[in-house]
Write a structure and sequence with these properties.
Blueprint (H helix, E strand, L loop, with lengths): L4 E11 L2 E5 L3 E6 L4 E5 L5 E7 L6 H27 L6 H14 L1
Antiparallel strand pairs: 1-2, 1-5, 3-4
Helix pairs in contact: 1-2
Subcellular location: Membrane
Membrane topology: Multi-pass membrane protein
InterPro entries: GAIN_B, GAIN_dom_sf, GPCR_2_EMR1-like_rcpt, GPCR_2_secretin-like, GPS
Length: 106
Amino acid sequence: LQEGKELHCVSWNKTGAEGSWTREGCTRIGGDALHSICNCTHFSTFAILMAVRPIPESFSLTVVTYVGMSVSLVCLFLTIVTFLVCRSLWSVSISLHLQLSICLFA
C-alpha cells in the first residue's frame, strides 16, 4: 500500500432514485498492496475505494510547477505569433497547429 493512501471496503447503498457508497457493514480484514480481503454482513454491490490523504506540497515542487508553466505559456504564445505572422507558409497543417497551440494556451 502506498504511503498516504488507505483502502476501504464499501457497498452501494441505494436510497430512492439515488445511491452512495457506504462503509457500514463492510470492513477490510486483510490483504496487501495488490489484494484486499473484505468482510461484509450483507449481499450488495461491493467495491474497494482508495482514500488519498493530501500530501504536503514542497517549495521546490511549487517553484518547478510555476516556472515550467510560465515557460510553456511564453513558448506557446511565441508559437501562435509565429504562425500568424508567417502567412507565406500558410497551409492546412499550419492552421491545425495554430488551433492546437491556441487550445493548449487557453
